[in-house]
Fold this protein.
Amino acid sequence: MSTKYVYMFSEGNGSMKELLGGKGANLAEMTNLGLPIPQGFTVSTEACTLYNTSGKVLSDEIKAQVDKAIVKLEEISGKKFGDNANPLLVSVRSGSRASMPGMMDTVLNLGLNDEAVEGLANATGNPRFAYDSFRRFIMMFADVVIGVSKKKFDKVLDEYKESKGYGSDLDLNVDDLKHICEEFKKIYRDDQGKDFPADAKIQLYEAIGAVFRSWDNERAFSYRRMNDIPYDWGTAVNVQSMVFGNMGDDSGTGVVFSRNAATGVDEIYGEYMINAQGEDVVAGVRTPKPFAQLKEEMPAIYDEFVNYAKKLERHYKDMQDMEITIEKGKLYFLQTRNGKRTATAALKIAVDMVDEGLITSEEALLKVEPRQLDQLLHPTFDTKALKEANPIGKALPASPGAATGKVYFNAEDVKEASERGEACILVRLETSPEDIEGMARSKGVLTVRGGMTSHAAVVARGMGTCCVSGCEEIKMNEEEKYFDLGGHRIKEGDYISLDGSTGNIYLGEIKTVDPEISGNFAKFMEWADKVRDLKVRTNADTPKDASKAIEFGAEGIGLTRTEHMFFDEERIIKFRAMILSDSVSEREKALEELIPYQISDFKGLYEAMEGRPVTIRLLDPPLHEFIPHTEAEYEAVSKQNGKPVAELKAKAAALHEINPMMGHRGCRLSVTFPEITRMQIVAIIKAAIEINKEKGYNIVPEIMIPLVGEIKEFRFVKEIVDSTAAEVIKEAGVDLQYMVGTMIEIPRACLTADAIAKEAEFFSFGTNDLTQLTYGLSRDDAGKILNDYIGKNIYEADPTARLDRTGVGQLMQMAVEKGKSTKENIKLGICGEHGGDPSSVEFCHMLGLNYVSCSPYRVPIARLAAAQAALKFPR
Ligand code: PEP
Ligand code: MG
């Protein structure tokens, strides 16, 4: 049986997103709901996969199905494709399962040729409009489908206007436009060595192929990577009869949200432009009017729209982002989808919709992207500093947040500067999909053109990047890299600050303050906490980090990297003296000096956690990280331990390793230098005894041994832990419980987890090392190859950021099963970076772990991800 690749809108429905893409499924659903939809058909995502995996040709079978659909569309519309009396024109747009705004290409007015343009002129009685549409089509088709540079067309158009002394496109008359069309076709012929395709069918096949290929372009790759969208989903293509928003002052186009996408307030929010076509609003070519104004300009259309918008919102139980066209006083919906929104808006909408009885709190939890919460956790401007700041301009508050940084004028420069560690503000005339990576790396984005639904605004909001758009007072000189605003000249590298919530632009740097969890955020997180099974801990090395994490809802510390406690200038000298000791007694003497620091560090952590569980990991530095590098550093150590620099250097050289990541670190340090472990245990136990006494807590320290791959290693270190702890406890004359567990971060530990679990009281997956060692890919150097690996479709995602379920995950599962086979109730957690990544948290839930541990700022993300996992995969 042959596969069905093409579906009329009337044949689909909203649940067919995988096959028809989001846009196609929604167009079908809206057709079924009786909304005014220009009819059309969808070529499925399966056709995309077939196209991209079979030499990028459209198969005869797909072509035949497209031909049939066109015949049906001709019947529905009463128009004919390529006709010179009343031609059917179509738009061709992409639409994947998840919406990818601005990622894929669109072609409008397809079906025009020398005859059809006359037909369009006759049918509309508006030859100027017909030829204007034709010249737009030739350029768009040549640019998007074939890849002829748009600049060539712009140049011809600009020169022509100049020769005629015209100020704007609107001055072009029919004869001018006819002439431009001829010129444009000539550009095409010169570039391609053949005529512009006159056959509407050929135009259509080419355009469908181009949309499929655009799934494969760099922008799409980078968007998918940022949003965890798999390559093999593919995109569908929607072919829809054209309606025209550019037919005069009774026509227009708009992008409208059913609630305010910035604040979440229940009000119609969006923009429109009279006498404009489709993409003009989104592309930010002109600055549009606020949608509320349509109420005065076209009251009946406004009311009709609001009715439908509310109907759609109730139907989809979510805020809708709709694209409309008004053609000669008639309203059409071109698409609807669940709207992108700021995190503040997402929470308000979710909480309001629960209050309105539209959804349950559990449904609400599934509507917010965990990663988006990040936006709420980042600083805003310090109010006092803001009062003293120097505003130099104001534009649209397109995406909230506070950003301070150095100005750069293109994505490339931002990339370089951010690699140097600079905070950047990207300033552009308008942004386009090429700017995505630059936007992601910027603290904020400022554009000269474009409204609240422009590319810059939509993309920045999705990323949580602060954005101020449409600042038309800016006099920009992109080439020489400066702009003038409010009487100031701001050059590349100068500091400015942006307030994405007010639209204010300030000169210079402004101090920022940390946010707190309250209001809708707090309520929403309480719902999340009620449903999740996983506990959420934090990785924290200082009381400050620990307190921050508690504010964000952490339930304990899952990892303290004790080596991070020695980076302080005063301590590092003592630490270096310790590792460069020649004998045990010398080292013990050096360690004596470190004990007081460690005791106060651990007390600080216990105190910050107010009695919650704390896991402390024994020292795990690759030793090379601590070896002195400069002459001055050697001299400081020499002063500390009285040894000549030359001797210290010789000792350091002996410690040098070719591959320190797999070298003298983790429990291996305890095996070679047991006295270091003894010092740490003394500090961990003493600190707990003291703080329990002072605060009345009942801290049970969880002592974690790193890098275990062999049960005898674990046993060896545990023996040191137990004997040292026993001495300290005995000496203090008190009772203290403690636990000894291990990191599972070496593949061999997974393979032998049953033996290890017999003696370890808990496992914590160190998925940073486990990923490194499973892939044989250095975590310090992976960055250099990952772009190519992901760009060339070898890795779907960065395995150091998102847990690889197939390989690393299999090892984890084995460790869980083997561990439980010998100790049924063994406590299981994760403390690698993956503990704060939503997809990885979901996997940890599925594995049945007890907790995840992540950096403080990711705690709320992990809480929500854990709740969503529990709702999707009940244990
Ligand atoms: C790990 O390997 O996942 C881990 C948490 O330890 P570290 O990152 O300190 O090696
Ligand atoms: Mg590790």
Observations:
- The mean pLDDT is 91.
- The CA atoms of residues 402 and 499 lie 5 Å apart.
